[in-house]
Design a protein that fits this description.
- By secondary structure, the protein is an all-beta fold.
- It folds into 2 domains: 4-104, Sandwich (Immunoglobulin-like), CATH 2.60.40; 119-408, Jelly Rolls, CATH 2.60.120.200.
- It is built from 2 helices and 27 strands.
- The chain has helices spanning 130-135, 405-408; strands at 7-10, 17-18, 21-28, 37-42, 45-51, 57-64, 81-90, 93-96, 100-104, 123-124, 141-142, 147-152, 156-167, 182-187, 201-209, 238-244, 260-266, 277-280, 294-297, 303-311, 320-326, 334-335, 345-346, 363-364, 367-368, 377-384, 391-402.
- Strands 1, 2, 3, 4, 5, 6, 7, 8 and 9 form a 9-stranded mixed sheet that branches.
- The longest helix has 6 residues, at 130-135.
- It is globular.
Length: 414
């Protein structure tokens, strides 16, 4: 049977970089048959391709690499990675190539800072007592009155955890920064720094425990199956962790919705999406993802150990992310294979300190306009939209920042 392996060439090639307006073409070996339908995917967007005359070349609308994939009216604030797939139908049977990465290159970041491990950002929350846990944070803790120190629900007195029961009424509290109710333990990672910065390489680890009770009723002590979000009304997601930035000094010229660049949350955009799962999704700086970066179940009534490895950079050619998980199958966290089977994935992991498109030049008056990124912080949290749920309960422990996956592994199953 003929298939997409009949592709002879394409205008996009794996791991190549592109800038400006890029043609999208695919050349087929017609000896293998003539496809009845052809399309190309860039991330989660799809473009139909049409045959040029009687040739063996199909083309789609050109790709403007300076703009976002989903919102083409908006300039992309950074270079990004887009995962490409070609789809073709032969004799009624749809087939697809394996996705491959390409990169946009409209910004020139020049000589950004490039560090490995910086001992100044090493940190660990202290779970020996409630007062010790509060004192171990150098950042703000919103909703602290809803947190308590408890025995590990699995291991008992041998380990302590923070239990948070967050009611919807928390949004009326004076310490809440917005109308969205939140518990949020913010750690800049080193005082007097405001957070991790361009070029830092580090690992952040923590464990989360989702109660067995599937409920958001007040007094239930449960964590609900999230309902499908309605963009026109309210988002039904529940976020449990984020890398957040930029902060108070962000320029007003930045796109709306800036802030978190890595979020772990439960969110469903349709009934077709599986319930009771956490994931890391695409964002404004990484809009070319073909799906969830990582996706895993709640693991109700048991611990999920999570480690994120991050090279902080506004530059897709410098930044990367690694993900490690353990839900009881091993004694330690294990690397997760991400897109393309990679365990270390190129990724924009920090908000650029400027967002001027670098087309055709990135220098103004001899100065580099894309000069690095803002500082960021780690947030352990329960964060959600107002009125979405009456109450949400979640436990966490082992929150730390260190130089290796082993140094921050919560080891709930050791």
């Amino acid at each position: 049977m003929a298939g997409v392996w009949a592709i002879q060439s394409a205008s996009l090639t794996p791991d190549a970089s592109y800038k400006g307006i890029v043609p999208l073409t695919v050349q087929f070996d017609l000896g293998a048959g003539i496809p009845s339908a052809v399309s190309v995917s860039l991330g989660r967007t799809s473009r139909p391709m049409t045959r040029i005359g009687g040739t063996n070349i199909w083309q789609a609308a050109p790709w403007d690499t300076t703009r976002r994939l989903r919102d083409t009216s908006t300039l992309s604030p950074s270079n990004y990675c887009a995962w490409v797939q070609v789809h073709a139908t032969y004799s009624g049977a749809p087939q697809s190539t394996q996705p491959f990465p390409v990169y946009t290159a409209n910004y020139d970041y020049g000589g950004l800072a490039d560090r490995s491990w910086n001992p100044q950002i090493e940190w660990a929350a202290d779970y020996s007592s409630m007062s010790a846990w509060l004192a171990s944070f150098t950042g703000t803790i919103f909703g602290r009155s809803y947190a308590s120190l408890v025995n590990d629900p699995v291991r008992g007195k041998s380990r302590k955890a923070i239990k948070v029961t967050l009611p919807d009424s928390a949004r009326f509290d004076s310490d809440q920064p917005t109308n969205s109710p939140r518990f949020q333990a913010q750690q800049p990672t080193a005082s007097p720094w405001r957070g991790v910065t361009e070029g830092d390489t580090f690992y952040v680890g923590f464990a989360v425990y989702v109660p067995k009770t599937n409920s958001s009723a007040a007094g239930s002590g449960g964590f609900p199956t999230v309902r499908v979000s309605d963009p026109e009304k309210t988002n039904k997601h529940i976020a449990i962790f984020q890398m957040f930035g930029p902060q108070a000094s962000e320029p007003t010229s930045y796109p709306a919705g800036r802030g978190a660049i890595t979020i772990i949350d439960a969110n469903r955009n349709s009934e077709a999406e599986a319930p009771d799962r956490f994931h890391i999704d695409a964002n404004q700086l990484n809009g070319g993802d073909p799906g969830f970066l990582v996706d895993f179940g709640y693991n109700r009534g048991a611990w999920t150990d999570i480690v994120l490895g991050i090279k902080m950079s506004a530059d897709i050619q410098r930044g990367w992310i690694e993900v490690y998980l353990n839900q009881g199958e091993h004694s330690s966290v294990q690397p997760v294979r991400l897109f393309g089977g990679k365990t270390r994935l190129p990724r924009v992991t920090a908000w650029p300190s400027w967002s001027k498109p670098a087309v055709p030049a990135t220098y103004v008056g001899g100065e580099l306009v894309t000069g690095g990124s803002y500082s960021h912080r780690t947030d352990m949290q329960i964060y959600r939209s107002p009125t979405a749920y009456d109450e949400v309960t979640l436990l966490h422990t082992g929150h730390s920042v260190g130089p290796t996956p082993e140094s921050v592994d919560p080891r709930s199953y050791a």
